[in-house]
Amino acid sequence: MHIFVAGATGAVGRLLVPLLLSAGHQVTGTSRSRAGAERVRRQGASGAQVDVFDRDALHEVMTATAPDAVIHQLTDLSGADAEATNRVRREGARNLVDAATSAGVTRIVVQSMAWVYAPGKGPAGEEEPLDLDAAEPRGGMVAGIRALEEVAAEMDTAVSLRYGVLYGPGTWYEPGGAIAAALSGDPDAQFLANLEADDSVSSFVHVADAARAAVDALDWPSGPVNIVDDEPARGREWLPVLAAALDVPAPDVSSGGPDWARGASNRLARSRGWRPEHPSWRSGFARMRA
């Protein structure tokens, strides 16, 4: 197949392009910058410099490449700007789906999130509702995810990959990244300083496993799928392990936490054949230090 990867130079995209090529697919990858498009070309794919907010340019590129499927891996997380990220999910996804539909594309895979479920007991499954009544700023994030998934669902086949917290190369959780800076007290990373080693439950996924899921999802039926590892964990468990792996101070252990922080189940993804090469954040964090 010819796959159009929007966001080919992001944390997931940069690993996804080589995987698609190795699987025998033809790939066109986009970047907002000329340097990014050139980076895609050096990987052996076709690179296109285009901004997802430029509707006309996006339609032109999509029509010219005529892909069989689109994989949406666009984010705007570098500055932790929630509204900018939500704009990508709302307006960016709208533009991407419109361009794909106009070009005759019928299949899309999009990057979603696994921590948007309503409060409940135990890890959340895909059949459970989103936390649409959440207060701000969480409410805006959940609304952005709902908008993204609803727009994608307008296409004949749309798979929403609800990723857990991404860690590994190119993410906030890599050595020397934003999380390490926040735990070290860097004032420029204070937007992440509220990390709590409490009872809040998170589900993680290594960025390489996230990329492999996007390849697998090209053959999956429509709907959301949680892409998380096998071990949801409380902050009081994973944060000290992460801090040790990053060689930074760990926050004090506490109790409590929001009732929506419950983790997610990967049962559906596993039933479709996806297997994380990093089944637990424990071993995954340790490998980052190696």
Overall description:
The protein is an alpha/beta fold. The protein has a single domain, classed as 3-Layer(aba) Sandwich (Rossmann fold). Helices cover 37% and strands 17% of the residues. The protein has helices at residues 13-22, 34-42, 55-65, 82-102, 138-152, 178-183, 207-216, 235-246, 267-271, 281-289; strands at 2-6, 26-31, 46-49, 69-72, 107-113, 157-163, 165-167, 201-202, 204-206, 223-227, 233-234. The chain has a seven-stranded parallel β-sheet, with helices on both faces. Helix 4 (82-102) links the parallel strand 4 and strand 5. Helix 1 (13-22) packs across helix 7 (207-216). The chain is globular. The protein starts with a strand and ends with a helix. The model has no long low-confidence stretch (mean pLDDT 94). This is dTDP-glucose 4,6-dehydratase. It comes from Streptomyces antimycoticus. Residues 3-222 form the NAD-dependent epimerase/dehydratase domain.
Radius of gyration: 18 Å
Beta-strand share of residues: 15-25%
Q: In the CATH scheme, what's the topology name?
A: Rossmann fold
End-to-end CA span: 37 Å
Q: What is the global morphology?
A: globular
**Count of DSSP H/I helices:** 10
pLDDT < 50 runs, ≥5 residues: none
User: Which CATH first-tier class would you pick?
Assistant: Alpha Beta
Q: Please tell me the CATH architecture by its name.
A: 3-Layer(aba) Sandwich
Question: Structural class, from helix and strand content?
Answer: alpha/beta
Strands of the widest sheet, in order across it, are: 3-2-1-4-5-6-10
Number of structural domains: 1
Largest sheet: 7 strands, parallel
| Secondary-structure element pattern, one letter each | EHEHEHEHEHEEHEEHEEHHH
Helix content: 25-40%
Total number of strands = 11
CATH superfamily: NAD(P)-binding Rossmann-like Domain
What does the average pLDDT come to? 94
InterPro entries: Epimerase_deHydtase, NAD(P)-bd_dom_sf, NAD(P)-dependent_oxidoreduct
GO cellular component, one term: cytoplasm
Organism: Streptomyces antimycoticus
GO molecular function: aldehyde dehydrogenase (NAD+) activity
